[in-house]
Predict the structure.
Amino acid sequence: MRNQPPTRQAWTDVLPVLACLLSLFALVLSAQTSAPRPPDPTREKRLEWFRDAKYGLFIHWGLYAIPAGEWQGKRSLGLGEWIMNRSKIPVREYEALASRFNPIRFNADEWVQLAQDAGMKYIVITSKHHDGFAMFKSKVSPYNVVDATPFKRDVLKELADACAKRGMRLGFYYSQSQDWHEKEGAGNTWDFGPDQTPDGKELKTYDTYLRGKAEPQVKELLTGYGPVALIWFDTPRMMTPERGQRFADIVRTLQPNTLIDGRLGTEGDYRSTGDNVIPPEASTEAWETPATINDTWGFRKDDTNWKSPGQIAFKLVDIVSKGGNYLLNVGPTAEGVIPQPSQDILRTVGRWLKVNAEAVYGAGASPFGDEFGEYTARGAKDVRGQKLFYPQTEWRVTTRAGKIYLTFFGEPRAPFEIPTRAYRLADHARIDLKMENGKTTFSMERPMLDPMATVVVVEFEGDRVQK
Ligand code: FHN
């Protein structure tokens, strides 16, 4: 079907069976990932806004923004927020960064405004990353932004207020398992030795940390900042289902509508893919790809490997056409500024989204799938033993009742076969159709109206055309 969606007759035939196709996709995917979940109407209700939102802003911000990828004059490789681990910085030295944290240019309203300009529908910020430092006022540990820094302002509170004022949903990233500041938390092997023996026997009294810091801090997040859209747990090391359940119970008890991501260690509300991983196929299960705009999450001064607006727009539509959400990250500086290139990229995509919103927010997944690409016919596998997938990136399909959106990222090479009544979403210009060999086709006007991505809308029930 490459470059050839079904003809008009075929579409009317195909549409009633789309639901079947989608459930087939879901079956295939769930067979590959996890067992299908039993239907849960309460979870589905909680997920309603999330399924419509599609696009969120991830913010990784903490003390690591100060060294910004360099420790004692030496470049520290890896992710900016992992510097304490990568450079094996002792707790006593790393925590001294707190006395230098004074991001006087932080302005919560501006951050929320950026997310809105970018067309993002929710924000998720690191409330505590693996370094153990809380970006909120915590009674549980003085190692927090109010009690340990000259800044003395509760970053999360300011952001929560700005979000409430502007109608933006706010969620909190919380590293429940790794806490390199705490003797009994997971991950700090350079100060406190290994977490476990090679055969898995725990060497730390991990539950002391969980019950003494992580669980009470999650309670603080759920009681002091208004409605919390979601808690984004991460890297569930040593998180048995029982331990995970304790967090889930806290969330469900304090804020039953708060979503739990897929990295708690017990079942959450939706599936989180690997970092920057976009699955090759669609799924009806709710899912989200967390992704970097350059190569790091926390700010690194040497990372300028920005993805272009075109790449971001493609990934967003690709994800939406597979039924998922895109949580795209920025890493603010130690002064509290979101790097200008990140802002420019996000706003450029935001301008595209303003005119093409209909194809994205609340849109359904592709009923087809051929356009995603294909697995290698020779059965070659990658290093993880997964079958190699060759993605196609020319166009994607999203849907809404009575409409199919064909988003083109390049000029289609051959005339594109479609049913009649098609128009460009950005300016509602009718698409000229041709009859060729008994098929209705169109050729994209060249150059494309928007070279980044041009959306063609096909309305398949004639009477409903609103042009
Ligand atoms: O270790 C973290 C990493 O620093 C970052 O927070 C990402 C975001 O998805 N999560 C972990 C790695 O998967």
Remarks:
- Residues 206-224 form the longest helix (19 residues).
- The chain has twelve helices and 19 strands.
